[in-house]
Design a protein that fits this description.
Layout: H1 2-27, H2 35-47, H3 49-63, H4 73-87, H5 92-123, H6 129-146, H7 150-215, E1 222-233, E2 236-245, E3 253-254, H8 255-258, H9 261-274, E4 281-285, H10 293-306, E5 311-315, H11 319-323, E6 329-336, E7 339-346, H12 350-361, H13 366-380
Parallel strand pairs: 4-5
Antiparallel strand pairs: 1-2, 2-3, 6-7
Helix pairs in contact: 1-7, 2-6, 3-5, 4-5, 7-9, 12-13
């Protein structure tokens, strides 16, 4: 452990020294490996600027002096051209010599123009010799400090920049990985809490559904909520299956594989009534399908119990259930000119409800009439 601490401390100190070196090199603003040579040439020119100026002026006087007392190169060339012109018509060689001399004259004129332009340039040149000498001293001192020439210093700066960029990226990746691991750990904890709560509620739901199914005539039914772990997703880590068995000699199996229509109606009602604290309205579509006798009676009683706290809407063809409703609506379908129309009307009088019950029972005999009346009277009791 002590060795690791010592190694870490040494590495940190070494990085500090390297960072300081990089800072110095970046502040030096090194752009060209030839900068020292270029600055030395410029320094030499500025130091000897007066001598250079005088030499150009003297050269211009020699090349192009219009004074008759001091002849110039240009005047000598002009005189020579005049002399050659006198004999050029007599000799082809003379013509060629004259042509060469004209070329020399043109070159001299170009040289005079260039010298004059450069003279004007250096005369207008604003001397920054102190700054140049200061920069030269700084660069040479930098080479001595790190025992590297300018080319090597530029390469070293670029290497250090790459090193720290990669190091910073590595540290950033490590930080992000640590954050991801921490978030994953927190998420896994939440998954476990969610799964535990689900299993607790599932146990309560199982007991409630089993009790209701027993009251609905399925005394031998068995219901279980099976949990198995799955790959984590937005739904958690639980793969949940509803297992059902209607008879004692029947093993639990997936609900959709073994349950009958009548059993499914009662099972759905048991599930809905077990969670009835949540919705404000239940909509039950032929929930009484396949039921009769004691099972039907238990179902109706259960619906009445649910209706104490929630609104329950039932679609039914069962007169026994229809008679127990606190409100009764009749749905009619008519086809007019090939178009089907659906209408709904509330049955407001006892006679209207009785007639509808008779229709549901399937006849208009005295016995049916009396049975419909008894159903309504029993419901009102």
């Amino acid at each position: 452990m002590n060795e690791k601490i010592e190694f870490s401390r040494n590495q940190e100190e070494n990085n500090l020294v390297i960072k300081q070196m990089l800072k110095s090199l970046e502040e030096a603003d090194l752009n060209s490996s030839e900068e020292i040579l270029e600055l030395e040439l410029l320094e030499n020119k500025l130091v000897n600027n007066l001598e250079i100026n005088n030499s150009i002026k003297s050269s211009l006087e020699n090349l192009n002096n219009f004074s008759h007392d001091e002849p110039s190169v240009t005047s000598f060339i002009n005189q020579s051209l005049k002399i050659l012109n006198k004999t050029a018509d007599f000799d082809l060689k003379i013509q060629k010599f004259r042509e060469k001399l004209l070329n020399i004259h043109a070159d001299v004129e170009d040289l005079i123009f260039d010298l004059k332009s450069y003279l004007q340039e250096i005369e207008n040149y604003e001397s920054n010799l102190p700054e140049i000498q200061k920069r030269l001293f700084f660069l040479k001192n930098l080479e001595r400090t790190f025992s590297l020439d300018l080319t090597q210093l530029i390469e070293k700066r670029d290497q250090l920049k790459t090193y720290f960029q990669q190091n910073d990226q590595g540290n950033e990746i490590c930080r992000i990985k640590a954050q991801i691991e921490n978030l994953q750990s927190n998420l896994n904890s939440l998954f476990v809490i969610q799964s535990t709560e689900r299993k607790k509620i599932a146990k309560q739901l199982q007991n409630s559904v089993m009790s209701i199914l027993s009251n609905l005539g399925l005394e031998n039914a068995n219901f279980s909520i099976q949990f198995s772990e799955c790959k984590p997703s937005g739904d958690g880590i639980d793969d949940i299956n509803f297992l059902f068995s209607a008879n004692p000699d029947q093993k639990l199996a997936p609900l959709s594989n073994v349950i009958s229509g009548g059993e499914m109606s009662r099972f759905l009602l048991a599930i809905k009534s077990s969670i009835s604290k949540k919705p404000n309205t239940f909509f039950l579509d032929e929930i009484d399908s396949g039921l009769s006798g004691k099972s039907l009676f238990s179902l109706v009683e259960l619906i009445k119990e649910i209706s104490k706290n929630q609104q329950v809407l039932c679609i039914t063809h069962q007169p026994f259930l229809a008679a127990r409703g606190s409100a009764h609506f009749k749905v009619n379908k008519k086809v007019i000119n090939g178009i089907t129309f659906t209408s709904i009307a509330k049955l407001t009088t006892k006679n209207q409800r009785k007639n509808e019950l008779i229709e549901l029972i399937g006849g208009g005999s005295c016995e049916v009439n009396e049975y419909a009346s008894r159903l309504l009277d029993r419901s009102a009791a």
